[in-house]
Amino acid sequence: MEKPMSVITTERHGDILVIISNNPPVNALGAEVRIGIDKGIKEAAADDSIKAVVIRCDGRTFFAGADITEFGKPPVEPWLPALVESIELSEKPVIAAVHGTALGGGCEVALGCHYRIAVPSAQFGTPEVKLGLLPGAGGTQRLPRVAGVELALELTGKGDPIPATKAKEAGLVDRLAGEDSLVADAIAFAGEVKDVRPIPRIRDKTATASPELFETFRKANAKRFRGFDAPEANIKCVEAATKLPFAEGLDFERQEFTKLMFGTQSAAMRHIFFAERKAAKIDGIAPDIALRPIRKVGMIGAGTMGGGISMNFLSAGIPVTIVEMKQDALDRGTGIIRKNYEATAAKGRMKPEQVEKAMGLLTPTLNLEDLADCDLIIEAVFENMDVKKEVFGKLDKIAKPGAILASNTSYLNIDEIAASTSRPQDVLGLHFFSPANVMKLLEVVRGAKTADDVLATAMDVAKKIRKVAVVAGVCDGFIGNRMLKPRQFEAMKLLMEGATPSQIDKVHVDFGMPMGPFQMSDLAGVDIGWHRDPTRIENIRDALAAIGRWGQKTGKGFYDYDEKRNPSPSAEVQKIIDDFAAKSGATKREISDEEIIERTLYTMVNEGALILEEEMAQRASDIDVVWIYGYGWPIYRGGPMFWADLEGADKIVKGLEKHGFEVAPLLKEKAAAKGRFN
Ligand code: 3H9
Q: Domain 3-hydroxyacyl-CoA dehydrogenase NAD binding: where (predicted)?
């Protein structure tokens, strides 16, 4: 987007000076903006004919925060905290006129103002915690003083915004403007308050709370905050607002902010913020390429995946025709979709009429020909190449010209599938992750012949259904599952050499993963991919599956489970492991946690390097996005390739070589050049 000539302009409306920011796309508070506002405030102070000031933004939003691209670069004055301070200390009333999203530093600018007026659709929030930070321009000190300690904890600790209507109830907003008359209403408001003295400043208020409030908040969110540094820093700062005078509170906030800003967690989370946005861009394809319209979607298969995938489109208001082979499977599938929606409604996250609206967009059928008018058809049938080829062969005859044909395969060759049609340019992979209506990741698999506009349309559709999409090339398991393989393989080998499932899982959970490889197996089903022949026992998994240890669903897998699904180590499993180890001649030994990291996580990085070398991912940050949004890699470690940069490529190479792994040339190159992936 082109920058306007001057990002800050001023206008006079009688004795009111209006400072206007126009810094697309989101009015981030970069140096030019800060300098301009500062100048405007000084201009008002120096001019006796000005009685009050309004600060507002052009474009789609009020300031969406500090300019994150400036972080880590040499600071340019005025720094945001100083600017907020100079607004607050202005001897002429300053009014913030808010539309869109007043986020982070933007919210803090509004808090520095003496009055806040907002359109009802505006949102207020301090999402810094999601970047591993805290509102460092006085937000942690002013929010509790104006909106109460409880709300300040929610806003800063969790980072989710609140609507202007709620902000008004909390005292954060003084007045709601008409949706289309913000500027006029703000100027009128300024006229009303221009002579009011003393000028109301948030710094003059006090924040009080019972001491238990903080502990209760910590406890209630312990699971969500596990491993993260920023939530605790936010809590401590809000607590400081209740104990320290304002100026000392600001000092405390500054110290905590600086610690976070120069720590690795925030660097990782900022990396992911930009990585997620970069992932949407396809190298070599013009961003303005004409897209194919997607007005109607066809879904083949009403099982868990098909149903979940359909829900994404229904929720986005896009009609879906869903096909099954048998009536009972169709009824079961549509029944589950309804049940899922009703469960969401029961939790208050959807209105009953929205459930009906979504269900009204669903057309169940047993007839594949009913997909003839669909713009995008997604296949989610049994994971078998012959079955997929047959389906695509049929689709080729049914689908209208230009329809996009997608497979939800998680590892099969898209080019081979595409070759069973006469239109391989219209074919690609859309690999959703289970549960498909919940998981944010979508791997968009680009076949050798996939047309540019087909790929670009798929990326656009992904955004419409609120997925984070990453382009992957055709290879076994694409990006995510391909990297999972060495991890699973090594985890099994480690069992034979003396590690236990709980030791390996603990290392992964301590690292920040939601669960370890064996906990994941038990959740997904130990029998997944099993050949279903109880007499053929080739590995530990076969042995467990053969005796019904299928995981949580049968009450036992790698672990034993009680009625509440609490796991405990199993003597039966240990015996199976020991028997296999004895048969293979492996000598058992003490396995260190370090070795588990080297063999299960360094091997993933190694595979990631191969993926980059083979150009199966566009960039290292795309791999990070896959692992954050598809597999629960802790966001504060920035994804496997970002983490590799933190560990250092040379350390990873040494770790891999120690255990005899073949190291990817790209990884070796990085190690030799002390280079980074990101
Ligand atoms: C902070 O304020 C610290 C202070 O407390 C203390 C300082 C001392 N800076 O998301 P979109 C870019 S920390 C720079 O696709 P949407 C973004 O990269 C900040 N760039 O749009 C993208 O670029 P591109 C606290 C930014 O409509 C383009 O804008 N604030 C910033 O889906 C469009 O973004 C936040 O954390 C930024 N602050 O969503 C808010 N924000 O086109 C972060 C965006 O090249 N921002 N960009 O890919 C957001 O949450 C969303 O962008 C927003 C719009 C909801 C505003």
A: 296-472
Whether 99 and 242 share a structural domain? yes
Best residue among 27, 57, 68, 142 to mutate for probing ligand 1's pocket (most ligand atoms within 8 Å of CB) is 68
Q: Are residues 568 and 523 in the same domain?
A: yes
Is the same domain home to 59 and 174? yes
The CATH code of the domain that includes 381 is 3.40.50.720
Same domain as 510, residue 463: no
The answer to whether 10 and 36 are in contact (CB under 8 A) is: no
Tens digits of per-residue pLDDT, 469-508? 999 999 999 999 999 999 999 999 999 999 999 999 999 9
Confidence band of 586 (pLDDT split at 50, 70, 90): confident
DSSP for residue 598: I
Write the DSSP string, 601-668: IIHHHHHHHHHHHTTSBS-HHHHHHHHHHHH---GGGT-HHHHHHHH-HHHHHHHHHHTTPPPPHHHH
Same domain flag for 222 and 360: no
Any domain includes 513: yes
Residues in a beta bridge with 469: 442
Q: How far apart are CA 307 and CA 341, in angstroms?
A: 11
d(CA 29, CA 475): 43
600 burial class (0-12, 13-18, 19+ CB within 10 angstroms)?
buried
Q: Check whether residue 310 and residue 457 sit in a common domain.
A: yes
How many whole angstroms from 102 Cα to the centroid of ligand 1? 11
CATH of the domain at 206: 3.90.226.10
Ligand 1 neighbours (beta carbon < 6 A): 25-26, 28, 64-69, 80-81, 101, 103-105, 108, 127-128, 131, 133, 135-137, 139, 274, 277
Give the domain-ending residue among 584, 616, 642. 584
Residue 508 and residue 423 share a domain:
no
Domain range holding 104? 3-261
DSSP tag of 174:
S
Ligand 1 centre distance from Cα of residue 28 (Å) = 7
- Please report whether residue 237 resides in a domain: yes
Counted domains in the chain: 3
Query: Cβ of 457: how many Cβ atoms within 10 Å?
Result: 21
ipTM for the whole predicted complex goes beyond 0.90? yes
Q: How far is the CA of 360 from the centre of ligand 1 (A)?
A: 36
Question: Which pTM was predicted?
Answer: 0.94
Q: What is the pLDDT of residues 142-189, one digit of tens each?
A: 999 999 999 999 999 999 999 999 999 999 999 999 999 999 999 999
